[in-house]
Structure formats: C-alpha cells, structure tokens
C-alpha cells in the first residue's frame, strides 16, 4: 500500500509526492499503477518515470511548493485553487516510514 501526500495532474504529465513500502518498491508500484490506468482508462504513458528521494522535511516542502505552483507558472490558471486536477488527502496522517541510517 502506498500513501499519496499530493498529486497534481497536468495536461501532459503528473506530479506527485508518494510514500511506498520497500517491497515491492517504487518501480514496481508505479509500473503496476500505470499498467492499471492504461488498461482501465486507456492512458498512454511514457515508458519510465522520474523520481527523486526526499531526504528531509525541508526538501519535501520545497518540492511540494514547486508542485503546487507549477500550474500557475505554466499559465494554466491564474490562481492555484482554480486548478481542479489536484489530490491532497487530509483525512489521514502520512505513515511512519522507517529508513536505513
């Protein structure tokens, strides 16, 4: 099971901050999710994806700010709150993920 902190759909790509368990890992999780969406919703995805490990809270906040402002920066809307294709779950806290030291 994975936890989405924010997901923003753009016209030609998707931005997201997600936490996934070590097994099966990020590559398998994203690959399976993209296969499911391709099959059910007929979405054509690029073959791979770009990922970046967030090392601390400050880096997460920096990436989150970038994601949330990209729709305005690209001229897709004047105010960020006008963009409807965003998911920000507020109903549960993020999981307590452990990481190797």
Topology:
Layout: E1 3-9, E2 14-19, H1 26-41, H2 57-73, E3 86-87
How does the major sheet shape up?
3 strands, antiparallel
**Would you count the extended β strands for me?**
3
Query: Uncertain segments of ≥5 residues (pLDDT<50)?
Result: 97-101
Helix content: 25-40%
Strand neighbour order, sheet with most strands: 2-1-3
CA gyration radius, whole angstroms: 15 Å
Q: How far is the N terminus from the C terminus?
A: 23 Å
The number of helical segments is 2
Assess the beta-strand content as a share of residues: 5-15%
**Which structural class do the helices and strands define?**
alpha+beta
Q: What gross morphology would you assign? A: globular
What does the average pLDDT come to? 86
- Tell me the series of helices and strands, N- to C-terminal: EEHHE
Structure at a glance:
This protein has 101 residues and is α+β, with helices and mostly antiparallel strands. It has helices at residues 26-41, 57-73; strands spanning 3-9, 14-19, 86-87. It has 2 helices and 3 strands.
Describe this protein's structure:
The protein is α+β, with helices and mostly antiparallel strands. The protein has two helices and three strands, in the order E-E-H-H-E. Strand 1 and strand 2 form a beta hairpin. The chain starts with a strand and ends in a 14-residue tail after the last strand.
């Amino acid at each position: 099971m994975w936890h989405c902190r924010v997901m923003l759909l753009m016209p030609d790509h998707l931005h997201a901050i997600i936490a996934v368990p070590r097994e099966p890992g990020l590559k398998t999780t994203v690959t399976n999710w993209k296969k499911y969406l391709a099959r059910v919703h007929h979405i054509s995805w690029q073959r791979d994806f770009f990922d970046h490990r967030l090392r601390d809270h400050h880096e997460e906040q920096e990436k989150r700010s970038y994601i949330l402002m990209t729709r305005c920066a690209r001229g897709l809307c004047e105010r960020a709150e006008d963009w409807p294709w965003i998911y920000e779950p507020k109903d549960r806290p993020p999981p307590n993920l452990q990481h190797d030291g």
